[in-house]
Structures are given as C-alpha cells and as structure tokens.
Amino acid sequence: LTELEKQVVSFKESLPADVVMLLECGYRYRFFGRDAQLAAEILGVVAHPDHNFTVASIPTFRLGVHLRRLLMAGLRVAVVDQVESAALKAESGAKSELFSRKVAGIFTVSTFTGSERLKNMRSPSLSTSNLSMSGGGHEGERAGEKQAHTQKI
User: Fold this and answer.
1) From edge to edge, which strands make up the β-sheet containing 76-82?
2) What does 65-96 look like in DSSP terms, one character per residue?
3) Rounded to whole angstroms, how far apart are CA atoms 106 and 15?
4) Is the pTM of this model over 0.85?
5) Pair 77, 22: CB distance under 8 Å
6) Where are the beta strands (DSSP E) in the chain?
7) Cβ distance 25 to 4 under 8 Å?
8) CA–CA dist 43, 79 (Å, integer)
9) What value does the CA radius of gyration of the chain take, rounded to a whole number of Å?
10) From residue 96, how far is each of 68, 79, 92, 103 by CA, in Å?
C-alpha cells in the first residue's frame, strides 16, 4: 500500500463500518473502495482503479451539494480534512511527507444542518451559497439542477 492508502485504511478502521468516508486530497475529496462504488452510484461520478483501491472524487467546492445528496440517500458520512496546505508543507521543508488529516465530522441526515454545520469545517473554499439545505447551489449550476435540488429537499 502507498502511504496515502495506509492513512485511508487507518481512518476507515477508526470509523464505524457503515460510515462512508470522504478524504480531502488537495482540491478534491476522494472516496476509496466500497465508498467509491457507492459514490459512483449515488452521485453519478466515475469510480476507477488507482493503485490498490477503486477511487472516486468530487471537487472541494461541491462538498456541500454532494454531502447533502449522500445524506438524503440514507448514508452516514465522515469528512476527513487536510489540516495543512501544500504551501505550509513546502515552507516547513517537509513537502514530500504525507499531509496531516483529521476527521472534521460524521454526518447523518438527522444531524446535518447545512451551512451552519459545515462553516466550522476547515475547507476555505466552501461557501454558504452551496451548502444551504434550501437548495442553493454553486453559481455554475444550471437553473434546472438548482431547482431539482430544492424540490428533492
């Protein structure tokens, strides 16, 4: 296993077995193994082999939208964030080492409160406009998608 894959296994072992995990890798959140297959089915993203796992990913700025969709499908979801940036790693002289990460939260449909819950998470690219439970989306969404999100909730 690669160092990242070892970190993934460590986080998965620390979580309840039924929790889907998203792990921040740069500007994307990645799903691994069974979680990647579930994400592909529910979110309509591509799951593909990468080293020793099947993986799928979503951009960080779409976390709120995709997290809400996973929760509405009845899943429990853990979000694992990077706690340092590439710039900070380079400055410290440890840029070839693995990024430090932490579980930012474990969410269920009954505990998720949209932007209020996520705004405390570290990801600076999250905006309240794409996290609202009332269906607000990223400004690049087509109007039909935004309306569909509102109607589903």
Assistant:
1) 48-50, 53-59, 28-32, 19-25, 76-82, 101-107
2) HHHHHHHHTT-EEEEEEESS-HHHHHHHT-TT
3) 9
4) no
5) yes
6) 19-25, 28-32, 48-50, 53-59, 76-82, 101-107
7) yes
8) 16
9) 15
10) 34, 24, 11, 22
Q: Which amino acid is at 134?
A: S
- Write the CA distances from 149 to 14, 26, 107, 144, integer angstroms: 32, 27, 19, 9
Q: What is the dihedral of CA 105, 31, 73, 138, to 10 degrees?
A: 80
The span from the CA of 6 to the CA of 116, in Å, is 32
Q: Which domains does the chain have, with CATH numbers?
A: 3-111 (3.40.1170.10)
pLDDT recorded at residue 114: 63
Q: What is the pLDDT of residues 98-107, one digit of tens each?
A: 889 999 999 9
Three-state DSSP at 132 gives coil
